[in-house]
Amino acid sequence: MDGELGWLALSLAPGIGYRTFHRLLRRFGSPEQVFTSRRSELKEIPGLKKKTIDAIKSSALRETAQKEMIRLGSLGIQIIQWGTEKYPKYLANISDPPPLLYLRGTLLPEDERAVAVVGSRQASAYGLSVCKKICQELAWHGWTVVSGMARGIDSAAHRGALEGGGRTLAVWGTGLDVVYPNENLTLSKEITSSGAVLSEFPLGTPPEPGNFPVRNRIISGLSLGVTVVEATVRSGSLITARMALDQGRQVFAVPGPIGRPTVEGSHRLIKEGAKLVESAEDIIEELLPMVDRKLHREIKTLPVGEQPELNEKERRLWELLGMDPLHIDAIARSVDLALAETAELLLRLEIKGLVKQLPGTFFVREFSSYSF
C-alpha cells in the first residue's frame, strides 16, 4: 500500500497514535515499508501490541482504507501527509506533528502568517466583543486567525475573522463529519469557504474529552503566536499557551476586569511574561519581523465610518451601559424613562452597533464603541 492509501491505512490501524506512527516511520521510512516488513521486525517496535501487528499484516485494513478514501472523496475532504509540500510548514516542524491531516477547504501560502486566538467557552460579553474586534483587525491586516471552533471565544474568533473579510482555520477535536458543537454547523461552512477546517482524527471520531488537549498542539503549531482571551486558571487555553511556548511560539493575553474567574488565567499569563494585548497591532508588531516579506501586507488604518449622532436620551442610555449586563428594568429606572420608550431607544442603539442585547433582556455596550 503506497501513497495516500498506505498513510491512511496505517493511521486507521488499532493502537496507532501519532507517536507510534512516527516511530514506525523512523524505523521503516514509509507506511509502504511498514506493511511489507516482517512480523519479527514489527515486534521490535516499543509499545506495538499484537493486535496492531495483526491488523498491519491483514488484508482487511486495505479494504477499510479503500472504503474510507471513497467516503472522504464524497465529503470533499482531502488528506495531507506529513513531509509533503502541502503540509503546513510551521506545523511540520513541531516535535509531534500529526502524520495525517484531514482537510476541508483550502490552505494558502499566506496562512503561514497566522495567529491563534483561544479562550473560555463560558466567555463574558466583554470577552466575546474584544475577541471579535481583535480578530476583525487581524483579518483586515491580512493575518489568518486559527482557533478550535468551540463555544465562546473560539467561535467569536472565527466570526471576527470572517466579518473582517479574512481567512480563518478551525482545528477540530472530532472527525470532519462530526460537527461539534452542532450549533456551529453554519459557521463551519462559512469557515470552509474562507479558509479550512482540519483534524487529525478519522471520520466518525466523536467529541471525546481527551481529543481536545491533543488537538491544541495543532492550533499553536499552525501559528506564529497564541493569543488568550479570557481563561480560567484550569482552562484548556492555558494548555495551548504552554504548548505554544514549547514550540517556540509567542504568547499574548488580553486583560480583563479584576476579580472575574474567566480572566484569572489570562492575568497569570501576563504575570509570567505574556505580552499584554489591547489591539491587534500589539500582536502584529511583535510577529511582523517573523513574516516572510512575500507575505507582508502593509498595516492599514481600519476603515471607520461616520460616528452616529445621538440625541440626549440615546446618549444617556449609552453612557449608562458598560461591560456589565444591565436588565432593561434597571436601565429604565436609572434614566427615569418608561419601559416602552427605553426599549425603543435601546433598539435604536443596537441598530447603530453601539449596544448589544443579551438573553433575558440584559444589555451591554458594544466593545468597539467604548471610545465613541
What keywords describe this structure?
17 helices, three-stranded antiparallel beta sheet, single chain, alpha/beta, Arc Repressor Mutant, subunit A, Rossmann fold, 44% helix, DNA polymerase, domain 1, 372 residues
Number of helices: 17
Q: How much of the polypeptide forms β-strand, as a percent range?
A: 5-15%
Mean of all residue-level pLDDT scores: 90
Largest sheet: 9 strands, mixed
CATH topology of the largest domain: Rossmann fold
Number of strands: 12
Looking at the overall shape, the CATH architecture of the largest domain is 3-Layer(aba) Sandwich
Give the overall silhouette: elongated
Overall tally of domains:
3
The level-1 CATH class of the largest domain: Alpha Beta
Structural class: alpha/beta
Approximate helicity band: 40-55%
Strand order in the sheet with the most strands: 1-2-6-5-4-3-7-8-9
Q: What is the element string, with H for helices and E for strands? A: HHHHHHEHEEHEHEHEHEHEHEHHEHHEE
* Cα radius of gyration in angstroms: 24 Å
Low-confidence stretches: 298-307
Distance between the termini: 63 Å
